[in-house]
Specification:
Rossmann fold, two-stranded parallel ribbon
């Protein structure tokens, strides 16, 4: 989405970001007079009209040249946004690279380098917005051939560098393929200018999970590092003498023969035994 006015660099960057996230995004070519950090109602109106939860809004003026705002909505209400300036000296669009593009709808690998992505609230929010913007549809499994591009974000010297690479899997003589990366654009360095953190109540509501999605905790069950499920069973001591064994003729108990009284037998026959 373009503001009024907007620079050509920001327009090219917006179209490139849209091409990475296709078919889950679209570009609104019409210009809109809007100042997100002063009045957010026009953005919320467009988000509700287009049923969109993420947006990229570009503007350009003397005070903040080549400006781009990334943000997200919840229930068509602003949840958070980051305003960043584009470094025109290092910017390079996709059309300036001689590289084959990625497949439409494929999911990218994403890397974030820099301690600020885990410690500074503004960068933590920016990381979360970027993940939501490029992750696409959530799936359980993905084929190796579907991982055909990678997005690398590096925070250093007050800037956030974005690089986009094409993944090429080549034969290596083993089961593990040889991975080669070739830059495919866009190449952009951002400077974080302003941020709006989400309201605590709205953030709590947005992060609420349905009780149907929560996994019920099962007693005496645990999963190890290899993903195997192990269970613990409590049993009382068993009497092994009462266990039912295989019925084999050789294992049957023999009947004890009655002892014969020889004195009684001799008396009945009329003989005397000395």
């Amino acid at each position: 989405m373009f503001g009024q006015p907007s620079s050509q660099i920001c327009k090219d960057l917006s179209r490139d970001l849209c091409s990475i996230t296709k078919p889950n995004s679209k570009v609104l070519d019409r210009k809109k007079e809007c100042r997100p950090f002063e009045d957010v109602e026009p953005l919320e109106y467009l988000a509700r009209k287009n049923d969109s939860s993420l947006f990229a809004f570009s503007t350009h003026n003397k005070k903040r040249p080549h400006n781009m705002t990334l943000g997200r909505m919840f229930n068509h209400k602003l949840l958070g946004m980051c305003e960043m300036g584009v470094n025109v000296k290092t910017f390079k669009a996709i059309k300036d690279f001689d590289c084959e593009g990625h497949g439409i709808g494929s999911k990218p690998c994403m890397t974030f380098s820099g301690d600020v992505f885990d410690s500074v609230p503004e960068y933590v929010q920016l990381k979360s917005i970027l993940i939501d913007m490029f992750k696409g549809v959530v799936v359980d499994n993905i084929a190796l051939s579907g991982l055909d591009h990678v997005l690398a974000f590096t925070a250093a010297d007050g800037e956030v560098a974005m690089r986009h690479y094409r993944i090429a899997l080549k034969k290596s003589g083993t089961r593990v393929p040889l991975v080669e990366l070739k830059e495919m654009g866009p190449r952009v360095d951002w400077t974080v200018r302003r941020s709006t953190l989400p309201a605590p109540d709205l953030k709590r509501e947005a992060m609420k999970q349905s009780t149907q999605l929560k996994q019920k905790k099962r007693k005496n069950l645990e999963t190890n590092s290899m993903g195997d499920t192990l269970g613990r069973i409590h049993m009382q001591a068993q009497n092994i003498h009462l266990l039912q064994t295989r019925k084999v003729k050789a294992l049957k108990k023999r009947k004890v023969a009655k002892a014969v009284d020889t004195d009684a037998v001799a008396a009945d026959d009329g003989f005397h035994v000395e």
